[in-house]
């Protein structure tokens, strides 16, 4: 799943926990992806490109069921004991696990049960059907917005970023060649997407609150 729709998951969690700050929730749903970027930079995980498609060959440290659950438990302990905020700790852990669960639906068969064994491995492979991938991700992003009761600007953020993902979804053949020659490029593009979607979702999810709170202040 692409960055904007992972970020949209934070809206679901926020809606169920309105008093919690949104930014840590945005971090939680992308923690696993940020780890993937870092592990790719370090060469501990890697991807390949063949048949005009990106294949996430090796990502068991960031994206396995075991590591997702372990990262969730670790986050829970740090936030619960370190910051004494059990509600945020639970919500953050849910966000971390959500990432791996959603990726199992969209990824090719590349999400292992644990880093310790290459089997079993899961992935429904929706990513291999770009149009279906686009429709499902788009519908999910809009659903998250609807559930959150976001404002129109936030809906536009979700629509525009989904459309911006289309060239990447539909890319084939030579379009992906730069990623072969410069392996740091794909993790960097993904990191950039994570940051920019954090910014826009945070900004426009809050602008609604600001409008309503300033309106109530005016009253
Ligand atoms: Zn992922």
From TrEMBL:
Transmembrane regions: 20-41, 61-81, 88-106, 126-148, 153-172, 184-202
Name of the protein this chain belongs to: Metal-dependent hydrolase
Lineage: superkingdom: Bacteria
Record carries keyword RNA-binding: no
Record keywords, A-Z: Membrane, Transmembrane, Transmembrane helix
